[in-house]
Specification:
By secondary structure, the protein is an alpha+beta fold. The protein is built from six helices and ten strands, in the order H-H-E-E-H-E-E-E-E-E-E-H-H-E-H-E.
Length: 240
Amino acid sequence: MKKLILFLSLAQMLLLFACSGGQTDNATGETKSETAAVQTADGSATLLIETTMGNIKVKLFDSTPEHKKNFLKLAKEGYLDNTLFHRVMPGFMIQGGDPDSKTAMPGQPLGQGGPGYTLPAEIGAKHFRGALSAARLPDQVNPEKRSSGSQFYIVQNGPIPAAQLDQILQMRQGSGVNYSPEERDFYLKNGGYPPLDGDYTVFGQVTEGMEVVDKIANAPRDPRDRPLENISMKVKILSE
């Protein structure tokens, strides 16, 4: 079975290598910025992801109704409870939601599990720092860019230097993804991962707890990027 991970192109890997190790946190460690204000304006459902390293509050987007409905369903069923953040990459993202991780032995490879269904792509929102997004299989076996039914990731990368950001956005020209001056400014000041824009569904945004995302991303990990100590979660609905 193919592993449900973020499939990175060469350009995406170049950004990861350039950003890792330096820009993992902003002035306060929290997403209290224009970025959060813009991306969370589209949505009313709020959930709390309780982890063994602290709590993360997220808001789901109304513009991604299938993903919103599914994430609320998973939360109501307790499907994500006791799953692990099984893949963490500082300067990039943290990934969880694999049901196989509930009973995984130390060092066991993870990333293949799910509820047995996928979701249609609802691509539109950008991968700003704190974006809640759906993992999926790569284009070669998933040309419709359908999302995993349960695995998700939260973008952790911090502010992007102007020269690097402009190079990335120039490389995206012709991809069908456009950036307003305000969106460029968001990436510049707050961070995120623009090479994933247009390829993965962003269905929510962290509103509180980015300092926890930073801690999880920087946890000691093995060669497969699995944390050496389990970081588990429970997901609660605060409002729908």
